[in-house]
Amino acid sequence: MGRTSTARDRLLDSACELMHTRGYTAIGVAEICGRADVRKGSFYHFFESKQALTVEVIDTHWQGQRVAWRERLTGPEPAVERLQRLIAWLVATQREAWQETGRVDGCLLGNLAIELSNQEAVVQQRLTAAFDEQAELVHTALTDGAEDGSVAPGCADRATARAVVAQIEGAVLLAKLAGDVGSLDDLWPHVRRLVTADPPAHASTAR
Amino acid sequence: MGRTSTARDRLLDSACELMHTRGYTAIGVAEICGRADVRKGSFYHFFESKQALTVEVIDTHWQGQRVAWRERLTGPEPAVERLQRLIAWLVATQREAWQETGRVDGCLLGNLAIELSNQEAVVQQRLTAAFDEQAELVHTALTDGAEDGSVAPGCADRATARAVVAQIEGAVLLAKLAGDVGSLDDLWPHVRRLVTADPPAHASTAR
């Protein structure tokens, strides 16, 4: 690996770190280059624009995350335990980052989704694809769970899978805002309710 | 009501609209003044800075929202129906905006929370206070619901109330990203699971 590929990787790492903390708009190419120790002229040798770099940041980040999601959601255990393992890992990730930086930076994909949904179509497409994959991975686990009996049959649908992803994103948003990683300890009991709870009879009229 | 107060209100309205769509960092004072038809020199007569304006935008927005939240969550109906009324109103609000603009702009408070949590302490405090109030209003309704029997007794706690707020924010984030207001039609069934579902016995080992 020569100097060239290292510089490219450094630009990706720097952009990922800076955007995770402070978002897309607040970060300029000069700052990314400064942190990566790469000359600004070289930036455009590797990336056409900040937008193009951001698409690669998202792809690289989600490629790593996807492996982790799959690992946690696969195995011989009842599906609800695999889902619990995923949540525990997500919370541990936020906690480790918090111990290192003193901040809760939240979810890079969620942060960029909020900031860029209505503004950068290419970025929006990549983020949508990543969240769709997350929901699909959870949906597969829920389907397994309906078979092994650990997930309520009425909860093994794609809408519930999206609700699980939404609960994760919402809880991380509130933890980030409060700077309180401890609030994420409640995430699993709530996700569990989403996937194990058939609606009780007395609530059916309130549908 | 002279010209002065009108200009101030216009600045607040313009900032609210622009920030709701495109965030805080992407919007400058000049653009806010342009949309409000107020000279830039006058801006600093009314507001010390963009940050000071943003604090007022948040306060004004949440004051209006707070009234709406209280109205929907108060009444003689079982608490779970009041909660359903709140969710229906929130979804209708997003749908109306979408019909008007073709966009799902999501939640102004959530958008600013994601963007500014780690950067603007004063803004963060106001947003934290607003979300705390939301959780408190839901918590009060859940407590009523445990008494009237429409909410599961184990769900009438503050952590569940925060999970309801998280579910709203996460679902709105995904709807905003996908530009799909229709996905919010699933929000109520999922919130209902969070508040009406005692954990089933077979899931207790997965706590």
From TrEMBL, chains A, B:
<keyword id="KW-0238">DNA-binding</keyword>
<dbReference type="InterPro" id="IPR009057">
    <property type="entry name" value="Homeodomain-like_sf"/>
</dbReference>
<keyword id="KW-0804">Transcription</keyword>
<dbReference type="InterPro" id="IPR036271">
    <property type="entry name" value="Tet_transcr_reg_TetR-rel_C_sf"/>
</dbReference>
<dbReference type="Pfam" id="PF00440">
    <property type="entry name" value="TetR_N"/>
</dbReference>
<dbReference type="InterPro" id="IPR011075">
    <property type="entry name" value="TetR_C"/>
</dbReference>
<dbReference type="InterPro" id="IPR001647">
    <property type="entry name" value="HTH_TetR"/>
</dbReference>
<protein>
    <submittedName>
        <fullName>TetR/AcrR family transcriptional regulator</fullName>
    </submittedName>
</protein>
<feature type="DNA-binding region" description="H-T-H motif">
    <location>
        <begin position="28"/>
        <end position="47"/>
    </location>
</feature>
<dbReference type="Pfam" id="PF16925">
    <property type="entry name" value="TetR_C_13"/>
</dbReference>
<feature type="domain" description="HTH tetR-type">
    <location>
        <begin position="5"/>
        <end position="65"/>
    </location>
</feature>
<keyword id="KW-0805">Transcription regulation</keyword>
